[in-house]
Each structure stands twice: as C-alpha cells, then as structure tokens.
Amino acid sequence: MSEKVAIVGSGLIGQFWAMIFASGGFRVSIYDIDTEQVSRALALIQEKLERYEKQGCLRGSTTATQQAQLISGHTDLAECLTGAVYIQECVPESVDLKTKVFLQLDPLLSDDVVAASSSSCLGPSQFASAMKHRDRVVVAHPVNPPYFIPLVEIVPGPWTADDVLTKTRTLMEKVGQSPVTLKKEVPGFALNRIQYAIINECWNMYKDGILSSEDIDKVMKDGMGPRYAFIGPLETMHLNADGIVDYCKRYADGAYSVCQTMKPPPIQYDVPTAEKVQAEFASSIPVDKIPERRQWRDDRLAALATLKRQRDNK
Ligand code: NAI
User: Fold this and answer.
1) 13 lines ligand 1 (CB under 6 A)
2) Model confidence pLDDT, tens digit, residues 49-76
3) What is this structure's pTM?
4) Ligand 1 mean position, distance from CA 8 (Å)
C-alpha cells in the first residue's frame, strides 16, 4: 500500500496539495475544522481533477478517477493523522491560529513524521517554539496555483532536524514540485524578497511617471517573464556574456551606476497610487471581473506547466 499524507485545512491550498500528492500515488487524508468544508473540498477536488484530465493538464500517470480514489475526508484530526508520514498544514495565515493548530498536532506526532506548514509569511520560530516536537516542524511554502507553479520554499526553524529538510525536499521532488531549501528563516523567505524588490522598482517608476501601468506590466510579461520561465537571473548573467565572471567584468559598472539612481527601500505601497493604477485597469480588468481573469491566468499557467514538463520529459 502507498504511503499516506495528511492535509490539515481543506481550503484552496489544502485542495491543491491533496491533488498533487494523489498525482504522485500517495494516499491523502484531509481534515478541516469545518466539517461541511471537508465534503465541499472533496467535491471540488473531484471536479478539478476531471476538468484537468479533459484539458490534458492532469498530473501523474493515473486517471482522475484513480487519483480521486486515493483522497479521503476526515472530521477527526487524530484519525486523519494516523499512519501519515507527512503532514501539510493549510489553515489561514494567523500566528495565533497556526500556534494553536501545531499545539494540537504536537501530541499526535511521532519522532519520524514531518509536520510542514504552507505558511506564506510566518516562519516555524513564530508558531512552533512551544512544541515538544518542534524539531519535526518546517515550512513548505507553495506558490498559487501550486498545481501549475511547482516552486516550494522549504524553510527551517532554528531547531528543525536535518532529516526533516531532506525528507521534505525528497517528497516534493517525488510529486513533481520544485523545492528550494533556505539555510535559515528570513522574513519573506526567498520568493517574496525578490518579488518585493521588483514591485518596489515598478512602483517607483510608475510614481515618477516613467511608464504607464500597462507598459510596466509589459516589461515583465513580454520581456523578463518569458526568459525567467526557463532560466534564472544568475544563469541569465552567465549566458549573456562568456560566463558570469565575464558578465561582471563587462557590465558591473553600468549596473552599479543604474542602481545608484534607484530609491532605497523600504517604500510604502500607498493607496492614492494604487487607486490611480486601479483606475487604469478599470476598462481591461474591472474589479468585478477579477475571478474570470484569474481563471484566464490559471489556464495559461496550466499550458505553460504542461509545455515545461514535456520539454523536460517529466
Ligand atoms: P483558505 O481560507 O482557503 O483555507 C483555510 C482552511 O482552513 C479553511 O477550509 C478553514 O475551514 C480551515 N481551518 C481553519 N481553522 C482550522 C483549524 N483550526 N483546523 C483545521 N482547519 C482549519 O486558505 P488558503 O488560501 O488555502 O491558505 C492556507 C495557507 O496557505 C495559509 O497559510 C496561506 O498563507 C498559505 N498560502 C496561500 C496561498 C494562496 O494564494 N491562497 C499561496 C501560498 C500559501
């Protein structure tokens, strides 16, 4: 029988994790404090698996029906956790709630299980310090929608055991995610630190009247984005010269003088500027059309994920 993974919290992210683990052949138990949510989540998972199968973007080598059969719902936490080798917590982002949930998990943990949190911002030191089994706790932060964006940031607390990091990374690779391991907990982890640096410069260029909001987004989606879907910034430096050393020799002075003209962080994303940008989006993406636009985005991300898997023969 295949190994079992437990999901605690069956909202948007919990459902995606369940589908990802089932696509890798794991048995998945899901639990939610809201008992009706458990059946809603199972129905939504079934619907998504069938839709992705029809669209040709279902992950794994089994059918949607076979994957759905691996997923079961539970209204009792201990029952959900029984026999699980890995737990993925997916409750809302609140330090009090995560602390409470991890204290509930604590007496149910064994010395070899991994208890991972999907937390976007909170590191283990913020919610696991009072636990007996805090060495088994780690953050495994996905990116929305995790079914199509494979990055997972693995973030240890000061006391996280080494085998928890290696087991989490191995598991993520096994189910087709793309894990990175931070060597220590830092605010924003890696993705948001990079994302905020990008948003800061976009915000400043917009406020300084250098580019319209539409053109700022074009710089990313038609300039840097296509390249970064396949190679990262360090490899870009390496390929854009005869190696990264040559790149630095050729371009470091120029880059430094541009960087000196940048405003220092931190900046506040102020509401008057946000209102101006939102007014510019009014005809293309009015606020009441955001759900349709999210669906449009996810369809394209699904197509890109499928293309990347085919190219990499995964
Ligand atoms: P959500 O609000 O869609 O789902 C949370 C679920 O947790 C709900 O079904 C709720 O009933 C359940 N819940 C609440 N208290 C509980 C408890 N004590 N025990 C068990 N279940 C409980 O939230 P979402 O978006 O799925 O986020 C979950 C986590 O994933 C958060 O930490 C969030 O920051 C993180 N995350 C979210 C992303 C996103 O784009 N939504 C992306 C990456 C990470």
Assistant:
1) yes
2) 999 999 999 999 999 999 999 999 999 9
3) 0.95
4) 9
